[in-house]
Structure formats: structure tokens, C-alpha cells
Amino acid sequence: MSRPAEEVLEFDSLREILRRYTTCALGRRSVEQFAPVSERAALEAAFALIREAIAYLRGGSDLGFGSLADPQEWLAQLEAPGAVLSPAELLDASSLLDTVVWLKQSFRDDAAKFPLLAALADLRPLVASVRRAILPNGEISDDASSELKRIRANINRARDTIQKTLRQILRARGEEPGEDYVTLRNDRFVIPVRAADRRQVQGVVHGSSATGQTVFVEPLEAVELNNRLVQLAEEEAAEIARILAELTERLRMELGPIKFAAAAIAEFDSTFARARFAREFNCALPEFPASTGQKCELKLEAARHPVLEDKLRRQGRAIVPIALALGGNETVLVISGPNTGGKTVALKTVGLAALSAQSGIPVAAERAQLPLFDRVLVDIGDEQSIAADLSTFSAHTLNLKAMLEAATERSLVLVDEIGTGTAPEEGSALAVALLEEFRARRCLTLATTHHDRLKAYASTAPGVLNAAVEFDEVNLRPTYRLLVGVPGVSSGIEIARRLGLPEALIERARAQLAPETREAAALIAYLHRSRDELEEIKREAARQLKQLEEERRKLQTEWVERQRQRLAELERKFAEMGKQYEHEISSAVEAVKDRELRVQLEKQARRRMAKVRAQASQEADATIVAHLAESQQDLGVAPALPQEVVRPEQLVPGVRVRVRGLGQPVVLRRRDESSAEVEAGPLRMKIPLDDITAIISGEAAAQHAGRRGVSPYAPTGERPGRPSGSGITVHAQAGEEPAGDEINVIGCTVEEATRRVDKFLDGAALAGKPRVRIIHGHGTGALRRGLAEFLAGHPLVEKFFAEEADRGGTAVTIVNLKP
């Protein structure tokens, strides 16, 4: 009686759109077979494959099979015993086999990136003899068999012999130029003879020229040679037939793998067609959440009807998307609003989204979450049938009866203009009863209506929602937006005015409305205006928030740049002062005549200069840390880290913690009842306990330190200091370096390591040590290179080199000191 849901929802038109994105007949035939299924595993596997194809396309590559002919006919012949494929069909078969090899090679290097596509392309090699036997133009190659090669060689020799014999006859006759040629008639070699001289040449006549002046004669001397040539041609044809039969049989033996390869190519083409469709129509891959107790919800964001969108695109118009959520305790949605406002389109959009998702087709939406429906039940359109003696109301009633018989908890029910075709009171009462039945069965149900009673029912009944397709009362035209939560206004009188009915008639019609109808319409209009005002307030708030965020980022960027410039200027001045100080010291030392005293002064100057640099650097570090902490708090740019409750028993010495206002973790050294001392590299700070916001695990600390290029276990020492402001006390003093023959700087930064090594070398030189070892490890090599650059310019270093391989190799540097 009623049309199937696929036809009503235009699923065939969607398949037609998909066919445009295929590249071969196999893919088109695969698309034609798309139909809804309810197996979750199969659908998730299909969409996982499509997701990889979308990523493949996003990388700038594509996959097509435009040169592949439709294999349907020759595959059917292979299934028929005794059938022999023609050379062209064998070439088509070889193209299919070549495509399989090409697919496998295409994904060989991308197997890790596209594992599903690579697995689909992994087909076992098939026969390749076809390419050797048949040339690209469809002719059989001489190399198809040794027998064929022998026959063709004999044919060539026979032709040469015949032509040589006939040319000798022509020369003996002394034919004039233009008449001394050899030609073919009836597949036999002949010579032209003037009709008047016919009796002079003994032989068989095979025809004459158009004027009758020339006859073509096969001389008796050539008859036997031509007979031999014909016999060889027959042998050639028989050998070709044998080769074709043999190749066909070899393919027939591989029929299973060939059919599997054809199916794989069909799946490849249909998968990439769906990926291209998803990219072109901005589609989402649907989610099928498992039901846990309550029925899963249907959620669509920015959903569109792709067939309508395709049509509007060709007209240069844009489609208006819809968004809705239904499920859980709310299973019925009643959509109201004006005619031509998009109510039916909303139903079709939801229905087609369900069919698409369960057919392995991406959904035209930004996001689509759908239950797996057992069936989609539809009553949309005019089902009137004169032949069956059915009115529109009768046809709809019979359709609804069939839907009631089939509906289950897992069904999607779509009913357009429910309760129409009879008296409004009866129709609305029947509509309420039907919706109540669908609600009791927990079907997800969407229905459109113009009845005010249904709008009131949706406003009061539990589990039922109102929705409206918006109508622009200022411009008197629909906007096609779906507004969930408010009922719609039919606006029939306003539309009639827009279409040109006389104003007096419009006013009389308005006067006929019942007072409660006018009040309900006014209330609905007020709800719509209030909703619009709220939406505008939300949009304005979002705009202002975005603007404030942009300004905050701009201020932060400017502040960071200013601090960077200031630090760079301070470092430049400090470097200039250091150079000037070193120059003055060098000049003073050079003025000393006594060599031994000069060496001692040089060593003392080096130690004093290193100490000054270390103290200045530490004081600068302390000032910078305090300044950055205060400034970041003022700007509100402290890292947005998750806050957690820090228990007192967790605050043990050695644990790494996060401190409010500091961008990286620090090490807790000691604490009392109200404050704690923490260490950041060479710096120590005293902070309130309340400023500790989190405890960092050992693994996270190591990773964080690795990202920063700082060891989480950098050496420190006890040292007094001075206050730096804001309740933070900063201490900075280099620890005592070892006085032995070696120093371990593993985990230090290059700057810290050079500072420690410089002091260590001074101590070693004063102790009279000729050679020392510096243990820096392998790591990334940055520390080793930095130390090498430092040692190359050090005045106490005579030379340096890597340790022996069995004693550390390049992880240790040996330094020979100057005497």
C-alpha cells in the first residue's frame, strides 16, 4: 500500500549522488547495493575504513580506477564451462590483475599509516601470462607459444616466396610502371593483367578493376604457394584459438581469487567515493553508542538533507541545517510551524541520516549520534489512491495501522501532518492517541502538525517535546531553522496576506479566530521573541569573550617581548662589563715581570672572574624568577594546571611540587608549619605552604625536565641569601666542587656545567694536577659540544680529548692542564 521508507526519504537519490564520486563500474555497482543493516561491528569496520580514506585524501593523494573496464560479462563467461574469452576480454582481465598488483604496491610503504586499506589491498599474486600472450592492441603476441612463433615464421617465408615469384613473372612480362605490383584478392596473392592480355597469363582470375580494364590473376606458378600460405593461416588461427582457450582456462582456475579481487576493488572504489562525498558535503562519521539501561539518544548537529543540499548548490543557494536531540526520557518530538517552513524536510533529514548511517554512508552533519534502528517507519506525503477507492485520510490511517503493527522500542517513527484529512477535533484527538501509543512503546517519534491541541499536548505530556520551524514575521517568510523547546505558529493568515488576498478579507478572517487562539498565537510569538533575544545575548557575550581573550593574548605577547628585550639588553651589558674587566685584569697581569708571580695572578684572576660571573648570574636569576612570578600573576597567565588537594604528609624533602605563579616544577627541600623551602636549579626560594598546588610524580618530573633541558636532580647546596619580594626568598650560591681528579656534570645545563668545570679547573691547577676527567655522559651530545667549545678557549687547558673506549669513551673528556 505505502511506499517504502527508502523511496519516501529519497535514499535512491542519495545513492545517485554517491555514484558520481565512483571511478569504475565495480564501485558504481557496489553503491547501488547499499542498504541499511543493524550489525554494529560491520558498520564500525566500514566507517573505520572510510576514516582512513578521508585521511588519505587529506594528504593530497587520491585513488581511482577509471581505466578499469566492467568485468561483469567476462566473469560470467568464466563461470560457464567451455566458454573462451576474446583477446579484448583477456586484456580486461589482465588490467584487473595489474590493478591488484598496483594496489598492493601503493600501500606497501603506508601500511603503518593506513593499516585497514593496506590489509584490504593485500591480495595474493595472480597469473601474469595474459600480458605476455596478448599485445596492448589486442593482437596475439608471437611469444604466446613456440608453435605460434614457428607458424608465423613459416607464413612470413611463404609470403616472401610468393611475392618474389610473382615479381619475376611481372618482370618477364615487361609490364609498364604502374602495372608491376603484387596485391591480395580473397586472401591470395595476385598480379594485375590487362583484360586484353588475359590469355597470355595462365592462372585463376580473382576479380577485376572497377573499369574492367584490369583483371587480377593468380598465376599457376603461385597457386601451390598460395595454398601453402592458406594452410599456414589456418594453422595460425587454430594455435591462437588454443592459446585463448588455455589462457581462459588458467583464469577459470583462478576464478575465486579473481572474483575476490574484483570485490576488493569495488569496496576500494565505493569507500573512496564515500570519503569524497564526506569531504564535499562536510559529513560526519556517525557514532553508535551502546545502550546502557536507557535507550540511546539520537543527536544531530548541523544536519542537512544531502539531496536537497545538492539541488540548492546547483541553484547557488545555501541550505539551513537543523539540530536536535531525542531519546532517554524524551522520545516524542512534535514539530509545528507554517506551511513551506521546512517541517517535512526536518523529518526527511532525520530519516535519511538514520538510513545513511546504517548503510555505511557518512551523515551530512557536523556530528551524528544515532541508535541502531531495527526499522524506519514513515508516513510522509499524499497516499491518496483513486484506483483503490481510498481518500487521503484512509490511506494515512492504513499506513499508520501498519506502522503500529511493526513498531518496536528500536524503531524510528516519522509522521507528517498527523491527524489531518478529517475534522480538526477528531484528527487532533486521534493524533494524540497515536503519539501516546508510540510513546508507550518508547519508539523515537517525530511528527509534524498544525493542530493547537497537539502543541498543548507536547507542552504538558511527559517525554514529549515541542519544536518549531521558525517564521520571520517581519519579512513574512520561513527561515527553515528548527527551534526545539517551543511550539510553532502556523501563520496561515499572514502567509495569505503575503500572497495577495484582499486586506478586508484578511481582517474578517482574523476576527473569526477564537480569543484563546489569538492569545495562544500571541504567547507563542512572545516565546519566539524571547528566545531570539536570549540567542542574541549569548552571541554578544561569546563575541565579547572572544574579544577579551584576543586582547589578553595580545597583552601577554607584548609583555613577553618586552621582558625578552630587557633581558637581552642586560645580558649584553653584563657581557661588555665582563670583557672590559677581563681586559683590565689581563693588562695588569701582563705588566708583572716575574713569570711565576704572573701565573699565580692569572689563576687568581680567573677564579675571581668566575666567582663574579657566578654571583652576578645567580643574582640576576633570582631577580628574574621573582619578577616573572609576580608579573605572570598580575597578567593572569600562570599555567592552567589542574588543582588538587596537597596533604601535609605528602610534603617530604626531595619531592617535586608545583608552585602557584611558577611555570615549572621545583624540588621541596624542607618545610615547617607555615612555609617551605624549594629549589629550582641553582635557586632556592622560601614560599608559603598554601602556594604549593600539586605533587609531581617521578616519571612526570623526568619528562618535564627533559622537555625543559634541565635535570630534575641538578646539584644544589646550602646557602644564605636575600629577600626578593612578594613573600619569596631567593638564595643562589654555587655548591663546592670536588677537589679530586674528576667531576661529574651529567644532568647539568651547558651554562651550569661550564661554571662548575671552570671552578674545578682552577682548583685542579692550584693543586698542581696535570690531568683531570670530566664526566658528562652521552645524552644528545649538546653538553659535550658546549664543554668542548668552553675548554678550547680556557687559559689553563693545554689540550683535551675523549677517554679510552673501555673507560667511558666519548662520555668522558680528559683535560691536560698547562704546567
Concise summary:
This protein is an alpha+beta fold and 819 residues long. The chain contains 23 helices and 24 strands.
Give me the secondary-structure category. alpha+beta
User: Could you tell me how far the N terminus lies from the C terminus, measured between alpha carbons in angstroms?
Assistant: 110 Å
Largest sheet: 7 strands, antiparallel
The radius of gyration is 46 Å
Write the layout of secondary structure elements.
Elements: H1 5-8, H2 11-19, H3 25-32, H4 40-58, H5 72-79, H6 87-106, H7 115-121, H8 129-133, H9 146-173, E1 183-185, E2 188-194, E3 203-208, E4 214-219, H10 220-253, H11 255-280, E5 298-303, H12 306-314, E6 322-326, E7 332-336, H13 343-357, E8 367-369, E9 375-379, H14 392-406, E10 411-415, H15 424-440, E11 444-449, H16 452-460, E12 464-472, E13 477-484, H17 492-498, H18 503-512, H19 515-590, H20 595-635, E14 656-659, E15 666-671, E16 675-680, E17 683-688, E18 692-696, H21 698-708, E19 722-723, E20 729-732, E21 742-744, H22 750-766, E22 771-775, H23 782-792, E23 797-802, E24 812-817
Parallel strand pairs: 7-11, 7-12, 9-10, 10-11, 21-22
Antiparallel strand pairs: 1-2, 2-4, 3-4, 5-6, 5-8, 12-13, 14-15, 14-18, 15-16, 16-17, 17-20, 19-20, 22-24, 23-24
Helix pairs in contact: 2-3, 3-11, 4-11, 6-11, 9-10, 15-16, 17-18, 19-20, 20-22, 22-23
